[in-house]
Design a protein that fits this description.
Layout: H1 13-20, E1 23-26, E2 29-34, E3 44-50, H2 62-70, E4 82-101, E5 111-118, E6 121-122, E7 126-128, H3 133-138, E8 147-161, E9 171-176, E10 185-186, E11 194-195, H4 197-200, E12 219-224, H5 236-250, E13 260-262, E14 268-270, H6 288-293, E15 294-299, H7 310-327, E16 334-337, E17 340-343, E18 345-347, H8 359-366, H9 371-381, E19 396-400, E20 405-408, E21 417-423, E22 432-436, E23 440-443, E24 451-459, E25 473-476, E26 485-489, E27 494-497, E28 506-512, E29 521-525, E30 529-532, E31 540-548, E32 562-565, H10 571-588, E33 592-593, E34 599-605, E35 613-614, H11 615-623, H12 628-635, E36 640-643, E37 647-651, E38 660-663, E39 669-672, E40 678-680, E41 684-685, E42 688-689, E43 692-698, E44 701-710, E45 715-724, E46 727-736, E47 744-753, E48 763-769, H13 770-781, H14 788-804, E49 814-815, H15 831-839, E50 843-847, E51 850-851, E52 856-857, E53 889-895, H16 896-902, E54 909-917, E55 927-934, E56 938-941, H17 943-950, E57 957-958
Parallel strand pairs: 12-15, 12-18, 13-15, 35-52, 37-49
Antiparallel strand pairs: 1-2, 2-3, 3-9, 4-8, 4-9, 5-6, 5-7, 5-8, 10-11, 13-14, 16-17, 19-20, 20-23, 21-22, 21-24, 24-25, 26-27, 27-30, 28-29, 28-31, 31-32, 33-54, 34-53, 34-57, 36-50, 37-48, 38-43, 39-40, 39-46, 41-42, 43-44, 44-45, 46-47, 47-48, 50-51, 54-55, 55-56
Helix pairs in contact: 7-9, 11-14, 12-14, 13-14, 13-15, 14-15
């Protein structure tokens, strides 16, 4: 047997000591302990042993040749797989569960086999199924599924592959969970009994937050744990503990991968931490979206030729039925998720290529009277599982305000508490929970004019479920205009503006000189702004607004009271009053005929949509001595600084071909996305330097890909490589060959990605860290010569914009053009912008704990435009007006013929009239509605339509 080195680099020593307890080194590997509380549960002992690589250029030892003849497979066939790594039979400390992991170098189709010594006898080779997909979605190390062996004290490993390969850092983990008894399920009526983590002695699952929860539960994926079926009832908790130890210690995951585990005795074990009835993200399917939005249920045992027990089947029916009832999921039918179409109850093999959950269990899913049939019957009748006798009835909303809803329901005898679940989605996604001991609950802090969905259940004093949820009802908060404010003040008038209320026919605003709103005057408006004239200079006034129905009655309550003060009476303010009111009239309500020279002269402010941060305004603020945090507070009021790291995928729109072609260089690798396996690519082949490499669709079957290279003018296929799925080139930097030039430089990885499963076309996607992505954005969005605080503010805004785009619903997260935000890759980076990115490393803006929508534009023109989020408010922006900003004020001449050509249906243009503005700044603010009157008819367009059609810099203009 080869000598083996001790492996100590699974985690940094401090992390290992802090996370796993004491570390003790043995000659045959590393042994570590895993326990939540050594006084409550025995330590789980995880030992790891190196599996030596078998080099293809070394002679095969005689003992290997002898072993081949005794092996159960036909290995003497010259076409059989070769052994690329092997651990000869080795004495180890007693263990009950085994698994194999590696860092890289194990091909996708390699077979990993183990055998173990039990009661002095060595068993036959057993294949451990590859589980590398979860390493890609969960992080950590690629590896196999774990396998329960009952009790063994010796282990051997071999890895076989069709082609030569050199595995790196290959290890076998042997795990002793210790004996553990006394598990206690949490019993309930509708929820089946579930053994909690504290009862089976779980280690705390920390760091599962990327994300910790999915938005909802959309289905279930059934697995098996693999291993012996002969375990006793008291062994079950040990199997779960050992599985968690393998996932956390050997695979480097944050917790056990499954949401639930079920043994052959019908015991249900709580898996990954976070809440039994919540959509906790697991690590079971090998697909990020599936992991986030399905429950992973693992049946304990091997079911290739063995049927699951009746107790195991019944427990599975009750568990899946209860959870589906909780989230309104049907037992049958299909849905799309993570690029797949799955049955609501699916087997693991439907998500990835695997035998899991075994042929017998997989057949049971769809069999007549099988899992789907039984869950469907349970959901329809309540038979076959927990009854619904304790479910509250009569749920209704008894009172609604603009910010609260009150719910009431009938009392359930013996129920100590109730829990109301509330969501803005009929699927109950992203819910909030509200507990009470009474039969009513008022939920406050809600959004006005918003439809909410609610259901209620009975619970025990300890918070566990006593019943399933009731049917879902809906209720809508009252319609109240938000954002009421005075946007312009003169000596004798006040202009007020507010937010739109859906379905409102108009608005009524009242004004009073008293805070108690006595003796008010009223005005009605079809728009979102209204001005009161004839007021007293220097006086404080109070205002409220409400939405109206078409018959003039109130659609909802009045808004909160706001105050505003008219200007003091002076000569200058009087002149300003006349000027402002005159311009408001001429541009907002008076038709302006076509000038005699047939040309309109537009005067305007700003460049771009004006929402969020003004880039020129940020530079003006920095020149005024403001720090980046203050700049961000100004443009995104109500947000907070947070942090985020990770990876982002950028669609490279300029590469319009189906190939990903890069220049040859040292250190270049090819990675297969699904497995994480890498292949080092040579600098030269046959003594000739490789000029270029290319990932291309296979000409005979474009659903597959191949790797090609050229050393001269002729392209050749590299080692007959073909595969299905994505692959990417990796290096510190890569030069992407563009179809029409010039070539571009990118960091980390360039991926050939299929837009969807089975697609024959490809997209080029740059996969890199969020920090490196931000470096490629900032240098393209603002001049690198600007102040450092401006560059820092832009770094945080750009990073946040990218983070908010992260998604598992498609093959990329964000694009590289102005449709998203401009990204130029490594070739765009500058030292100044890199310093700003580094100085704000990881910082993003958050609102209500989520990444903010950090829109930005070139110049606000002096007033930002309100956007789609609460923090995208209209704010005065004096910083935007500095000498270097040529966009703050602008003029543009547009011929009548140009306007006519864009909207030919109106005939000959006769006049223009602004019919609506947003109420913020000069002339009444940005144009929201513009009327074009012609010889054949009238056309009303938006200010944004006018901007693009007439070639204007923004929608804030007059003429």
């Amino acid at each position: 047997m080869r000598s083996r080195r001790v492996i100590l680099r699974l985690l940094p020593l401090g992390v290992v000591a802090g996370l796993l307890g004491s570390v003790m080194v043995y000659q045959d590997g590393v042994e570590r302990h895993l326990a939540e509380d050594v006084n409550a549960a025995p330590q789980v002992v995880v030992a790891e042993h190196e599996v030596p690589v078998v080099r293809s250029d070394e002679p095969e030892p005689a003992e290997k040749q002898t072993e081949k003849q005794a092996a159960p497979r036909s290995e003497q066939d010259a076409s059989s797989p070769r052994t690329i790594a092997e651990l000869a039979p080795t004495d180890v400390k007693s263990f009950s569960l085994v698994g194999v992991t590696w860092r890289s170098g194990v091909p996708d189709d390699a077979e990993v086999e183990v055998r173990w010594r039990q009661d002095g006898a060595w068993g036959r080779w057993t294949e451990l199924h590859n589980d590398v997909e979860n390493a890609w979605t969960e992080g950590g190390r690629p590896g196999t599924e774990s396998h329960w062996v009952d009790k063994a004290d010796g282990v051997a490993v071999r890895v076989l592959a069709d082609e030569p390969a050199v595995p790196r850092d290959l290890r076998v983990a042997t795990i002793d969970p210790g004996s553990f008894a006394g598990t206690t399920p949490v019993a309930s009526v509708a929820q089946p009994p579930i053994i909690r983590r504290s009862s089976w002695g779980a280690k705390s699952g920390g760091g599962c937050d990327s994300p910790r929860y999915g938005s909802t539960t959309r289905g279930a994926v059934i697995h098996h744990t693999a291993g012996s079926n002969s375990y006793t009832k008291s062994d079950s908790a040990s199997i779960v503990r050992a599985t968690q130890a393998y996932h956390m210690n050997a695979r480097d995951w944050c917790d056990i991968g499954y949401n639930f585990l079920i043994d052959k005795y019908g015991q249900i074990f709580e898996g990954r931490a976070g809440g039994i009835d919540k959509p906790v993200r697991g690590a079971h399917a090998g697909n990020s979206a599936v992991n986030e939005q399905t429950m992973g249920v693992s049946l304990m045992g091997t079911f290739t030729s063995t049927e699951a027990s009746s107790a195991m089947k019944s427990a599975t029916v009750n568990l899946v039925g209860w959870r589906f009832s909780d989230y309104g999921v049907k037992a049958k039918g299909t849905y799309s998720i993570g690029g797949l179409t799955l049955n609501r109850i699916a087997g693991h093999r439907n998500v990835k290529s695997t035998e899991c959950p075994g042929a017998k269990v997989y057949a049971w899913l769809s069999a007549s009277g099988g899992l789907r049939d039984r869950v469907e019957r349970l959901l329809a009748t309540g038979s076959g599982g927990a009854t619904g006798s304790a479910v509250p009835t009569g749920l209704k909303s008894t009172d609604q305000t603009s910010s609260s809803l009150t719910f009431a329901w009938n009392r359930v005898d013996g129920a100590p508490r109730y829990r109301v679940k509330l969501s803005t989605s009929s699927s109950m996604a992203d819910p909030t929970y509200h507990g009470t001991t009474s039969t009513s609950e008022t939920v406050t802090g809600l959004k006005p004019n918003t439809k909410y969905y609610a259901k209620v259940r009975t619970i025990k004093d300890d918070g566990t479920s006593l019943s399933s949820y009731s049917s879902v009802i809906s209720a809508t908060t009252k319609a109240v205009p938000t954002g009421l404010k005075s946007t312009d003040q003169t000596t004798t008038s006040l202009l007020f503006a507010w937010g739109k209320v859906p379905n409102a026919a108009g608005y009524r605003i009242k004004l009073s000189s008293s805070s108690s709103m006595t003796n008010p005057v009223y005005k009605e408006s079809p728009d979102l702004l209204e001005r009161f004239y004839g007021l007293t200079p220097g006086r404080k006034y109070y205002a409220q607004v409400r939405a109206l129905k078409s018959d003039g009655s109130g659609l909802g309550a009045y808004s909160s009271v706001v105050s505003a003060t008219t200007d003091e009476s002076t000569t200058s303010s009087t002149a300003r009053t006349a000027s402002t009111e005159s311009s408001t009239v001429s541009s907002s309500s008076t038709s302006v005929p076509v000038p005699s020279d047939k040309t309109f002269t537009f005067r305007g402010h700003g460049y771009g949509h004006g929402i969020g941060m003004s880039q020129y305004g940020a530079e003006g603020a920095a020149r005024d001595g403001k720090k980046f945090a203050s700049i961000l507070d100004h443009y995104y009021p109500g947000t907070d600084l947070g942090s985020k790291s990770g990876t982002i995928r950028v669609l490279i729109t300029g590469d319009s071909t189906d190939s990903v072609m890069v220049e040859g260089r040292s250190g270049l690798r090819l990675r297969y996305v699904s497995s994480g396996t890498t292949l080092s690519l040579p600098e030269s082949i046959g003594g000739n330097k490789v000029i270029r490499w290319s990932i291309d669709p296979l000409s005979s079957d474009k659903t597959k890909s191949t790797l090609r290279y050229r050393t001269s003018s002729t392209w050749k296929t590299f080692k007959s490589t073909t595969w299905t799925g994505g692959a990417q080139f990796e290096a510190t930097t890569l030069t992407l060959v563009m179809p029409s030039g010039p070539d571009r430089t990118y960091r980390t990885a360039l991926r050939s990605a299929r837009p969807k499963s089975g697609a024959t076309n490809r997209n080029t996607v740059n996969v890199l860290s969020i920090e490196n992505y931000t470096r490629g954005v900032v240098a393209r969005e603002v001049p690198s010569s600007w102040r450092s605080e401006t560059l820092k503010a832009q770094s945080v805004a750009a990073r946040t914009y990218g983070v908010r785009a992260l998604t598992s619903s498609r093959h990329y997260d964000i694009c590289d053009t102005t449709s998203c935000q401009v990204y130029g890759g490594a070739g765009a980076e500058t030292s100044a912008t890199d310093k700003a990115v580094s100085a704000t490393a990881g910082k993003i803006l958050k609102y209500d704990g989520k990444p903010a929508f950090t829109q930005f534009s070139s110049s606000s023109g002096g007033y930002t435009s309100p956007g789609s989020q609460p923090y995208l408010k209209a704010v005065k922006d004096a910083w935007d007006d500095w000498s270097g900003n040529a966009n703050h004020d602008w003029t543009k001449s547009v011929s009548a013929s140009t306007i006519q050509s864009k909207y030919s249906s109106i005939g000959t243009l006769k006049s223009l009239r602004v019919t609506k503005r947003n109420g913020y700044g000069d002339w009444g603010g940005r144009v929201t509605s513009l009327e074009l009157r012609g010889s054949k008819g009238t056309k009303t367009i938006s200010g944004n339509d006018a901007r693009w059609a007439f070639g204007l810099r923004s929608n804030w203009f007059t003429f």
